[in-house]
Amino acid sequence: MNTELFISRRLFFDKSSKQFLSQKIIRIALFGIALGLAVMLISVAVVTGFKKEVRNKVIGFGSHIQVVNFDSRNSYELSPISKNQPFLHELETIEGIKHIQVYATKPGMIKTEEYIQGIVLKGVDQNYNWEFFQNNLVEGRIPQLNDSTRVNEIILSEQVSKLLKLSLNDLAVFYFVNKNEITPRLLQLKICGIYRTGLEEFDNLFVVGDIKQIQRLNGWGPDEISGFEIEITDFDKIGEMEQQVRNLVVDYHEDNDTILRTESITRLYPQIFDWLAILDMNVWVILFLMIMVAGFNMISGLLVLILERSSMIGVLKALGSTDWSIRKIFLYLAVFLTGRGMVWGNIIGVALIFIQKVFQVIKLDPTTYYVDVVPVNFSIVHLLLINIGSIAITTIMLVVPSYLVSKISPDKTIRFD
Q1: What is the pLDDT of residue 344?
Q2: 3-state secondary structure the chain
Q3: Rounded to two decimals, what is the model's pTM?
Q4: Mode of pairing for the β-strands spanning 137-140 and 116-124
Q5: Contact 110, 126 (CB under 8 A)
Q6: Chain-wide mean pLDDT for the chain?
């Protein structure tokens, strides 16, 4: 039988202890622990949710990995490559690759009687994964593409449509300039859908339509494209997956073939992903501060408990208990009390996360934060790690102040009573 655990449980459930002054101090400490744990849970949920939301939006415009012509620079006017690549069949068999699709981009302008806006027309085919734009569609529908005829339909952002005063089913006039051509090429395309992602720099830029329109504008053949977009199942493995794709592309390269290169989305938009990485530091700072607050709250509570139970400590020492045995009693008691505060912290934190996730109470300005509501990402793994880490660090912090037990003399405490 664990004697220390038995005594600490009796003290924990002892109703007569409510008369002690320490109970008021313990309540304050437990409130601090509950509040701190709730703040930690909410902070992690908000930051991870925000990172996931913004990351998925950026990936929605360009997938995880792109394969393009090596001669292409950091421009949307890319040199063409053939869509009939020998490595495609083997690429589809790699574990972790979700989808492969072709695309082409062409920079141009939309002009109305009053306004003009620079855009990038992104052409896709009937095998394109429209899930991202379908989820962000606010009006209309997705273009109905096929493999036989050119489709004169596009989707553009709500921001561009308001800026140019264009509505659903309007004809938008596009102008494109080709190299070595003085006269711009004109194209009229029907707006069949309007989307909104909240990523202003992307919403202001991308118009999505049929890839055959770009092939005609550039004078390309039906098998010529700007590149391939590759979706993977796990973003955390993007570096590893890009290396596998690059190795496969290089293995199939022949001397007379067009040289291809791979680009991950993190390298295409480093400013966004570097900014998202900085947010992790904010979370660590919050976690550190909240755990320190919880630890010092329990240290003060533990010291009061030891002082109020000095007579009990004296009796236990007189009966032959060692200092470490008595310290274990108070450490067990502190863990029980910390656990009670953490239970309330979990209830408060999870409840607030659930309310925000379901009812989206707190709104944001999408022009500043890229999202219109505070996103939250609830994870059981994060919940367990925060709870285990908090109680472990708090208990370690209590080991040193429990040393006060060894300073209590049994003859003085017993004689005092």
Answers
A1: 95
A2: CCHHHHHHHHHHCCHHHHHCCHHHHHHHHHHHHHHHHHHHHHHHHHHHHHHHHHHHHHHHHHCCEEEEECCCCCCCCCCCEECCCCCHHHHHCCCCEEEEEEEEEEEEEEECCCCEEEEEEEEECCCCCCHHHHHCEEEECCCCCCCCCCCCEEEEEHHHHHHCCCCCCCEEEEEECCCCCCCCEEEEEEEEEEECCCCHHHHCCEEEEEHHHHHHHHCCCCCEECEEEEEECCHHHHHHHHHHHHHHHHHCCCCCCCCEEEEEHHHHCHHHHHHHHHHHHHHHHHHHHHHHHHHHHHHHHHHHHHHHCHHHHHHHHHCCCCHHHHHHHHHHHHHHHHHHHHHHHHHHHHHHHHHHHHHCCCECCHHHHCCCECCCCCCHHHHHHHHHHHHHHHHHHHHCHHHHHHHCCHHHHHHHC
A3: 0.86
A4: unpaired
A5: no
A6: 90
Q: Tokens standing for 409?
A: 């003399």
187, β-bridge pairs: 174
pLDDT category at 20 given cuts 50, 70, 90 is: low
* pLDDT for the residue numbered 17: 56
Closest by CA position to 334, among listed 2, 4, 3, 1: 4
pLDDT tens profile 279-303:
888 889 988 988 898 888 888 888 8
CA-nearest of 338, 332, 314 to 402 is: 332
Tell me the C-alpha distance between 189 and 170, whole Å: 8
β 97-111/171-176 pair status: antiparallel
Q: State the Cα–Cα distance between residues 276 and 189, nearest whole angstrom.
A: 36
Q: What is the pLDDT of residues 28-84, one digit of tens each?
A: 888 988 999 999 999 999 999 999 999 999 999 999 999 999 887 778 888 999 999
Give the Cα separation of 115 and 267 in Å (integer): 33
CA 300, CA 401: separation in Å to the nearest integer? 9
